[in-house]
Amino acid sequence: HSAAMLGWVGKAALTLGEMFPLELAEPWDNVGILVDSTFSDEEIGGTGVILFTNDLTEKVLEEAMSAGAKLVVTYHPRPFGSFKRLKSSDVTQRIVLRCARAGICVYSPHTCCDNAAGGVNDWLAQAFSSDPSSISPVKPIKIEGYPGAGSGRIVQLPEQISLRDAVEIVKKRCSLQHVRLAVSESAQGMSMEDIKIKSVAVQAGSGGSVLLGCTADLLVMGEMSHHDTLAAIASGSSVILTEHSNSERGFLPHMVEELKKRMTAAGYDKIQYIISQTDADPLSVV
């Protein structure tokens, strides 16, 4: 099937590819249509449901099936790795088999969404500054036609804020009661009010490989390894960790809004857009 053959499902996949261009993906990633729809154009029809999730788990798949979704947009790719056989004893292979049987198309924008202008990293960065000129990629991607694309974002704050303020900004952006904090070695012993932040670098998900070595006062990401965290605080940065998917999930409503706007403008106005209620980070603070 080419995406063009698949009615509104194909149109939605093409539109997601315009929002988050596939050529911006990291080379190791697995993005785009991961499970093709097995429906004909007639079976897809003019109406339907798209379910959005950060992770495609079996609970989320059951939610999608109950809602009658014909397309699941999962920020994290599932499947991610390759396999030589499809067996129901493996959870990822079982999800693929169940999607195929139900005719559900699965699409992942993952690092295209991280790296694209207007994607998840810009959303994280904009919590600290509403001025686009103050935000730039940590590692720009030099592909013509994609200004502002790249991995990570660094924000030069219009005026300095305290580390306490920064923590509250992250909690609010990611709808969290708790975050993990590592204070820069040079600031240890000071109160959070007295530690001043003039620059912030952000990377959704696992940010160590992108942000380590970045000279920002504060690094914000989902997760970072113990040794990378030690290296970061030794080099003068404080670190805020939200847990992996908590740094990403809050972007889903913005993805829905943009896709809906574009689909409606193209004449596809009978589509329902729902965000998973069962999708959540597996880790919680107890």
TrEMBL record:
Gene3D superfamilies: NIF3 (NGG1p interacting factor 3)-like. One of its GO terms (cellular component) is mitochondrion. A divalent metal cation binds at residues 76, 114, 244, 248. Pfam families: DUF34_NIF3. The keyword Metal-binding applies. InterPro entries: DUF34/NIF3 (IPR002678), DUF34/NIF3_sf (IPR036069). SUPFAM superfamilies: NIF3 (NGG1p interacting factor 3)-like. Belongs to the GTP cyclohydrolase I type 2/NIF3 family. This is NIF3-like protein 1. It comes from Hanusia phi.
